Task: inverse folding
């Protein structure tokens, strides 16, 4: 159970990681965010958010070293944890509850 | 990810390794960036992109993360502010030091910007040129121009416009209001159009002004206020100037008018009415506008051709004279460049000294805080975070210093500007003040200052390992910090020495200048000017009568030891000059005639001025309007024309009304004339009774002690008795003329001394700080030495030696740099060599003294160390 609601940006990062599946490397996640959400994401803020989500236990990462290049830096592949998923659902439920009966306003035409 | 290894350029990796978190986290961030880098197209755009990304990451992790714990950016600043508040002594000292440097630099920059950098305030100012005549054999340059020659230049069509200006002269305005003296310039009617000056009221001169369109004047705003007060409409009104009525055509905004500065009235006069080569001399400043595709070189070449024709047509007048075309900017501002840039550079050096000084202070404080920093480090703060935290603190200090400094600059510029404007006779090109450009400069300087003094301590602190620091606690920090601080002190001393030698050179140059033999004595001498205007004084006969009457009455003035008058006082402007030759030999070719200044005088002028009579006599009753014409000449004239001969009784032909010789009856000493740094020029004096020439006279009164007020009052009464309509104007002491003539070097030397003093003080504080700190660190060592029999003298020597080493090292570097820098000062020096040993030696000695004084405190503390306590506490 997450201690508090997720921030908007945190939710977006978590969803972007889920969208990328097993290709959820930091760079890809950031690009997914920029494309789907249409907003530019500062590199520093993005990494800081990832670090915070990791501290809260909502994401975890594993180290992958690309096989085809000896000198490349290691990459981190991110994964949303069960807590992370639960947090997303929680936020979604709250949003749904708040949105009830407002479809005519919120549906895009 | 298959394509090639994603590798960043070395510099980016080097920076990022320092900034980003350690381990896989940081490495993967670099990896992400490397991949994006490899995907971008090669070219300068990619480099710029990378630099921006690295800078953004650097800001995020280097600065923002610094306040972590408080959380984010606000935390970092807040933490820094809390930290600095807790140590008000240090903060105040640091902020004050920075503010001093920034304030002085910004204040001078505001002057430099307004005077040298801002464009001249006229339409397409780069096209404007000044036109002069020059005479190579006589070494005369930038001489005023003959109206006939100027007209020929205009008619040649080489320039897009040519106009003439006469420098401001006092004139009497008798209506509206009471008669009073007002400065006025004659200009040709196209003057304002040539400059592109738009009047604020009215339209300007009509093209026929001064001729068929009648007399016309234009007022400056100040002139409007002076003449009319608050009257709503002045255009179209008439004004009586020197007895002639003229119509007000327009009002100009107050500002700079080339060659007519200080004039409240511009009177239009057609160039054709000013005479030509056959009936008048050279008295106009020429102003021209280059054609839009023209250059100064081309204009100079074309006008030189025109001038060659003029020499042929009027050889008796133009032989040897050439045309000189110069950019107006150079003519108006050229002299100001050297002193103003020098002062700005000096203020920059002072800023540098204050940066080094604060770096030193910050380093000392970081050392005192080593326990705190070590604990933070041990609790998990990365060295990067600690360096970042210090950086934020330093930037906070710099920002506070910058804000205070800008305030100081504002006050300084407000106080300084009038001084500088007077001293440098700076044309007021736009107001000096803190505008956008100056504020931008201030912000830039502040940022650089913060970086300059912040980087060293931040990185020094960031490097230290917590374990080593905690272990070393009680024994003081590592040697590295000590060495760094010593290096900073050496730099401080060196920079201060450069400033101090420069100041010493300028002060010595100034002292040489004020001890120049002026040839006159300023003690108890007051002067006042009488200007004959109005219908009564048409033609020269009434002038002669008036001055003769004045001369008769002057001697009887109460409170006066000697009284006389001259048409143009020394150091009061150029006055008139003409060519001459000794008439007791063959007549030399015209272009070889020497030039002398001509001064009509009245009364006991030489006695009143204290000018020594060297041979013969001065004028007496025997030199009247109907007796043979006589002159008194200056020593340099006599030496030039009759070297080794007795000049008394010899004839002198003066190219003035005619060439009939005058007889030399006396020789007086030379006086400085055009400036204190100019060699005296040959001078011819004659009595006004034999030729008045000009309708004005500066009366000179040598008073009895304390009699100045009485004498001036009596002079006013006397002039009013002779003609109630005439005021006595510009009452000044003779000393005042000398002070004005030396104002520029005085202000330059004064400011430089101020900067050097401040720098020397900062350096002394630096030396003191390092030594005091070193003594504190070596308490135990000194205790042991004392316990083993070292005497007080040995301890003092030990401490002092360290300080003296620092000072000597700084001195050596500083003197070497100063020897080079002094070359740049050369144009500002008078009678002092750029490597003047007295200035260099004096600066060196002063610094040794400062160093010894700075050593005293710490040394005294060291000899008070008690071995027992030292050992117990250590």
Result:
């Amino acid at each position: 159970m997450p201690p508090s609601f997720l921030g908007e940006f945190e939710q977006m990062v978590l969803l972007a990681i889920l969208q990328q599946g097993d290709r959820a490397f930091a760079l890809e996640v950031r690009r997914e965010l920029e494309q789907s959400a249409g907003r530019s994401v500062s590199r520093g803020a993005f990494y800081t958010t990832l670090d915070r989500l990791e501290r809260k236990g909502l994401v975890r990462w594993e180290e992958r070293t690309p096989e085809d290049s000896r000198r490349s830096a290691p990459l981190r592949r991110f994964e949303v944890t069960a807590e992370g998923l639960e947090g997303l659902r929680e936020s979604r439920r709250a949003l749904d509850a708040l949105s009830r009966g407002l479809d005519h306003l919120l549906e895009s035409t | 990810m298959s394509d090639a290894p994603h590798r960043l350029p070395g510099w980016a990796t080097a920076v990022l390794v320092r900034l980003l978190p350690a381990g896989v986290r940081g490495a993967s961030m670099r990896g992400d960036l490397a991949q994006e880098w490899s995907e971008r197209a090669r070219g300068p755009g990619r480099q710029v992109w990378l630099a921006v990304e690295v800078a953004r990451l650097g800001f995020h992790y280097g600065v923002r993360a610094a306040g972590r714990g408080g959380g984010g950016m606000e935390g970092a600043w807040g933490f820094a502010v809390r930290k600095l508040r807790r140590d008000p002594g240090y903060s105040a000292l640091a902020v004050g030091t920075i503010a001093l440097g920034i304030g002085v630099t910004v204040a001078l920059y505001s002057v430099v910007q307004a005077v040298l950098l801002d464009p001249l305030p006229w339409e397409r100012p780069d096209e404007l040129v000044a036109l002069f005549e020059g005479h190579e054999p006589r070494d005369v340059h930038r001489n005023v121009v003959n109206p006939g020659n100027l007209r020929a230049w205009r008619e040649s069509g080489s320039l897009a416009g040519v106009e003439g200006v006469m420098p401001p002269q006092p004139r009497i305005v008798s209506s509206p209001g009471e008669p009073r003296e007002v400065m006025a310039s004659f200009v040709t009617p196209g003057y304002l159009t040539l400059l592109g000056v738009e009047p604020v009221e009215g339209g300007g001169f009509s093209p026929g002004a001064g001729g068929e369109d009648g007399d016309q004047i234009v007022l400056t705003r100040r002139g409007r206020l002076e003449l009319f007060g608050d009257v709503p409409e002045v255009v179209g009104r008439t004004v009586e100037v020197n007895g002639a009525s003229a119509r007000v055509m327009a009002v100009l905004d107050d500002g700079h008018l080339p060659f007519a500065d200080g004039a409240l009235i511009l009177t239009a006069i057609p160039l054709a009415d000013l005479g030509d080569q056959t009936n008048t001399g050279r008295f106009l400043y020429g102003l021209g506008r280059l054609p839009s595709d023209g250059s100064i070189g081309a204009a100079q070449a074309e006008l030189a051709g025109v001038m060659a024709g003029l020499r042929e047509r009027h050889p008796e007048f133009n032989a040897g004279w050439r045309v000189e075309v110069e950019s107006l900017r150079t003519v108006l501002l050229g002299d100001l460049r050297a002193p103003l840039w020098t002062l700005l550079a000096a203020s920059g050096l002072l800023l540098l000294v204050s940066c080094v000084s604060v770096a030193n202070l910050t380093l000392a404080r970081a050392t005192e805080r080593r326990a705190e920093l070590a604990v933070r480090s041990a609790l998990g703060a990365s060295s990067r975070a600690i360096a970042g935290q210090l950086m934020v603190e330093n930037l906070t200090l710099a920002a506070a210093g910058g804000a205070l400094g800008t305030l100081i600059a504002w006050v300084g510029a407000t106080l300084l500007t009038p001084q500088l404007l007077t001293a440098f006779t700076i044309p007021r090109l736009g107001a000096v003040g803190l505008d956008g450009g100056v504020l931008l400069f201030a912000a830039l300087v502040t940022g650089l200052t913060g970086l300059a003094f912040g980087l060293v301590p931040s990185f020094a602190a960031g490097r230290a390992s917590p374990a080593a620091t905690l272990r070393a606690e009680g024994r003081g920090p590592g040697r590295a910090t000590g060495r760094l601080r010593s290096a900073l002190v050496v730099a401080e001393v060196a920079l201060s020495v450069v400033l101090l030698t420069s100041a010493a050179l300028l002060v010595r140059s100034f002292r040489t200048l004020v001890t120049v033999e002026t040839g006159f004595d300023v003690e108890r001498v007051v002067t006042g000017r009488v200007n004959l205007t109005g219908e009564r004084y048409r033609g020269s006969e009434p002038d002669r009568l008036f001055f003769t009457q004045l001369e008769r009455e002057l001697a009887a003035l109460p409170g006066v030891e000697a009284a006389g008058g001259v048409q143009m006082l020394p150091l009061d402007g150029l006055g008139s000059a003409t060519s001459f030759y000794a008439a007791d030999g063959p007549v030399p070719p015209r272009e070889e005639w020497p030039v002398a200044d001509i001064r009509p005088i009245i009364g006991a002028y030489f006695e009143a001025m204290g000018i020594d009579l060297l041979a013969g006599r001065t004028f007496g009753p025997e030199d009247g309007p109907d007796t043979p014409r006589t002159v008194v000449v200056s020593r340099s004239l006599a030496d030039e024309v009759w070297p080794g001969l007795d000049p008394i009784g010899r004839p002198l032909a003066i190219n003035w009304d005619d060439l009939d010789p005058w007889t030399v009856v006396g020789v007086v000493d030379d006086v400085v004339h055009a400036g204190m740094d100019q060699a005296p020029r040959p001078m011819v004096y004659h009595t006004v009774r034999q030729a008045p020439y000009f309708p004005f006279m500066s009366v000179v009164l040598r008073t009895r002690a304390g009699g100045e007020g009485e004498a001036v009052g009596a002079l006013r009464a006397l002039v009013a008795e002779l003609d109630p309509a005439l005021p006595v104007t510009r009452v000044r002491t003779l000393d005042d003329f000398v002070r004005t003539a030396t104002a520029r070097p005085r202000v330059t030397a004064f400011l430089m001394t101020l900067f050097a003093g401040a720098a020397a003080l900062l350096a002394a504080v630096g030396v003191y700080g390092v030594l005091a700190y070193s003594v504190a660190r070596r308490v135990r060592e000194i205790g042991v030495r004392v316990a083993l029999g070292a005497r007080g003298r040995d301890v003092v020597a030990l401490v002092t030696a360290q300080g003296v080493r620092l000072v000597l090292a700084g001195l050596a570097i500083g003197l070497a740099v100063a020897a080079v820098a002094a070359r740049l000062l050369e144009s500002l020096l008078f009678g002092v060599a750029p490597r003047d040993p007295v200035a260099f030696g004096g600066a060196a000695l002063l610094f040794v003294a400062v160093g010894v004084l700075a050593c005293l405190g710490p040394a005294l503390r060291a000899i008070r160390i008690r071995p027992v306590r030292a050992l117990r506490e250590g």
The longest strand of chain A covers residues 59-64. The mean pLDDT of chain A is 83. Residues 82-99 of chain A form the longest helix (18 residues). The CA atoms of residues 83 and 98 of chain A lie 22 Å apart.
